[in-house]
Amino acid sequence: MTNFTGHDFIWGCSAIGAGLALIAGIGPGVGQGIAAGYGASAVGRNPGAKSDITSTMLLGQAVAETTGLYGLVVAIILMFVKPFG
Amino acid sequence: MGLFLTGNELAESFMIKGVYKLPFQFLGGDVWITTTAISSWIITIMILAFGIIVGNKFKNADEIPTGLQNFIEMAVEALNGMADSILGENRNRFINYIGTLFIFILTCNLSGFMGMRAPTADYGVTFCLGFFTFAIVQFQGIKNHGAGHFTGLFQPLPVLFPINLIGEFANPISISLRLFANLLSGVIMLGLWYGMTPLLAQIAVPSFLHAYLDLFSGAIQTYVFCMLTMVYVNDKL
Fold first, then answer.
1. Which chain B positions have a beta carbon within 8 Å of A70's beta carbon?
2. H or E stretch at B151
3. Is B221 helix (H, G, I), strand (E, B) or coil?
């Protein structure tokens, strides 16, 4: 710990921040699970509309994924672009 | 050359790399031919060659389609159906752009199968695609609504003008970041796999990762990008 500089401190804090940014992955996980659950129950009620339900569900899930991907982008910027040091 | 994933460099394996430095400067910075540019050239040449082959095929099309002609007719019908579900009667005005977008993004997303770094995993590419959408949406808004396109920003209350403005500019950022981040996560996962596992685990196992990250995710994101472009355009018609 003798050669611990301010640059190292900022780099460590950036790594912690990148880890914290990926907490954003909780939201899309829950949301996609809810969408898949309702999709499954809709197919159970009306098996004839399976293809329509599946495509609508996948479209909604892909859009709901966006907030989690913003967290990923922030984490990648913190780790590889290193805006603070 | 750095175009293909070697698996030797862990962090290097999923970065965009400069291949050839051009002998001039632009706005005080160096100009590089990157792996993204070379990959998109290869993809453009492939699409052009495919288009020429299909065009020659359709010059003397058969009454009863077989083989390639059958496949192309099915693909065009699927694209038309996709555009019909959003745009309805205005479909023929936009199907050329939407179809071009769909073919280009899909080929880019699937280029991971050919060992290339997907061009859509570069924010420069996806931002341009998002900007095209933005430009088309604004053009259609001004053309169809005139001054109402701008006064609509003050609806329902003038206080909401900043939020409406941000909402207008957030669309291209949001759709381009969605495509970029999906493809980037796939590139990073595959780069980590190729960089961290021993040679034995690189023979057949990555095909499952490729199937999910390149094929499934890439196809879904292509569909989402085209659908959202059509939804935004349809709002302004």
1. 177, 181
2. helix B148-151
3. helix
| Chain B: closest CA distance from residue A40 (Å) | 19
**Which residues on B lie below 8 Å from A58 (Cβ)?**
220
Q: Write the pLDDT tens digit of every residue in B67-123.
A: 888 888 899 999 998 888 888 888 888 999 999 999 999 999 998 888 788 889 888
CB count within 10 Å of CB B108 equals 28
Confidence of residue A1 (pLDDT cuts 50, 70, 90): low
Domains of chain A, earliest start first: 25-80 (1.20.20.10)
> Hey, are the CB atoms on B181 and A80 less than 8 Å from each other?
no
Give which of A65, A77, A79, A81 to mutate to test B binding, by max B Cβ within 10 Å: A65
CB B187 within 8 A of CB B35: no
Q: Do A63 and B178 touch (CB under 8 A)?
A: yes
Residue pLDDT, tens place only, B152-203: 888 788 888 888 889 889 889 999 999 999 998 888 888 888 877 778 888 8
At B146, is the secondary structure helix, strand, or coil?
coil
pTM, two decimal places:
0.85
Give contacts of B228 with chain A, Cβ < 8 Å: 63
Q: Taking CB atoms and an 8 Å cutoff, what residues of chain A touch B181?
A: 69-70, 72-73
Do B179 and B105 meet the contact criterion of CB atoms below 8 Å apart? yes
User: Are B177 and A73 within 8 A, CB to CB?
Assistant: yes
Q: Which helix (H) or strand (E) holds B20?
A: strand B18-26
Alpha carbons B113 and B206: distance in angstroms, whole number? 11
What SS3 class is residue B116? coil
Q: What angle do CA B160, B166, B169 make, to 5 degrees?
A: 140
